[in-house]
Amino acid sequence: MFLKNSHVDYRAPLDPRDAETLGVAAAAEVERYLSFRDNHVETPLVALPGLAEKLGVGAVHIKDEGHRLGLGSFKALGGAYAVIRLVLEEAGRRLDRVIDISELHAPEVQAVARSMTVACATDGNHGRSVAQGAELVGARAAIFVHSGVSDERVAAIARFGAEMVRVEGTYDDSVREAARVAAERDWTIVSDTSWPGYERIPGLVMQGYTALVREALRKLPELPTHVFIQSGVGGIAAAVAGHLALEFGEARPVFTVVDPARAACLFETARAGHPVTIAHGAPTVMAMLECYEPSLIAWRVLSRVADAFMTVDEEDAVAVMRQLANPVAGDPAIVAGESGGVGLAGLMRAMADPAAKAALGIDARSRIFLVNTEGATDPGKYAEIVGFSPVVVAARNNRGAGA
């Protein structure tokens, strides 16, 4: 399904709160924080000229977040950053002075961190980031996971020392349970979704994602004409779209939000013109995007600066995983998890739909920017879908990409 943005706020300026959160100055501060991370390395921007020629566009570039901070997902930028900010702010209140990131490991700051517990709900990737951030600063973490999260993803979070809490039901059930328990125990919820009265911390999480946009813009040979970004609750899509709008104004790229058809909360919100909670149905293979209610601040951004919304099916996501693992001759292989290549799936679906292609103004000169939001965060599931382990796929680049 494809839908142009017809919201009354479309092309209106961002809310001042969101402009401050996602602007250039904020993104620069995120990058300064990253410079203090021991394992920080900019993730690759990968050109796929063979795929661009096959699709009939001028260029395709993918920012590969499968390498981010040892966690294999763009989420590494958000949760951990928010945890660090919150610890520094709490230390500042208790010590009655501004605490800089350079003081993170000072004894008095570490003492504050040890007194704090951060909590969140997760499908897997956000929880790993929050748990990693807590371990980094010396705080405790409690991570709530729903019944659909694989044991392998749970183990990947637990290795950072987090307390793991299983919740029956869906992601949204785990969000509610995490909020309830945290309120009872005076823990700090570090969520990547927002609800009435809870916006600042999800805003910090989104702010963390702006670093990947700044990195990409420094490497891209030209400003993209089109961007396709996948969406769960909307955080990554809003962060990218909002930052590009603030940086380039009316010259910004045409931006399309891509949802799984089985969990299309942003698409249905756009169709309704206001945030909606959709009914739970069959689970989607795009596990990190299986969300049934949008983040309010993400929708506030996307209602203004997203140009279109679309959905892709299960087979689209699977086909893209295999496409990236077995690329067009001359292109490098990319390890993309079940949700990682969904933006590319949206591009390919749009190219096959003459009406959508025309509505977006895609032609042979178009320059496409995408984000591989995750690598093989569940290697067993990846091998089951693709037919090869992620190690085998990654090794192909050392021998030359396959046809």
Architecture overview:
The protein has 403 residues and is α/β, with parallel strands linked by helices. It folds into 2 domains: 2-73 and 202-398, Rossmann fold (3-Layer(aba) Sandwich); 79-191, Rossmann fold, CATH 3.40.50.1100. Helix content is 45%, strand content 14%. The protein is built from 17 helices and 11 strands. The strands form 2 sheets. Strands 1-10-9-8-11-3-2 form a 7-stranded mixed β-sheet, with helices on both faces. It is globular, with a radius of gyration of 20 Å.
Shape: globular
Calculate the terminal CA-CA distance, rounded to whole Å: 30 Å
CATH architecture of the largest domain: 3-Layer(aba) Sandwich
Total separate domains: 2
The portion of residues assigned to helices is 40-55%
Number of helical elements: 17
pLDDT < 50 stretches: none
Query: At the first level of CATH, what is the class of the largest domain?
Result: Alpha Beta
CATH names the topology of the largest domain as: Rossmann fold
Order of helices and strands: EHHEHEHHEHEHEHEHEHEHHEHHHEHH
In order across it, which strands form the biggest sheet? 1-10-9-8-11-3-2
Strand tally: 11
Largest sheet: 7 strands, mixed
Compute the CA-based radius of gyration. 20 Å
Category from helices, strands and their pairing: alpha/beta
The residue-averaged pLDDT reads 95
Hey, roughly how much beta strand do the residues contain? Answer: 5-15%
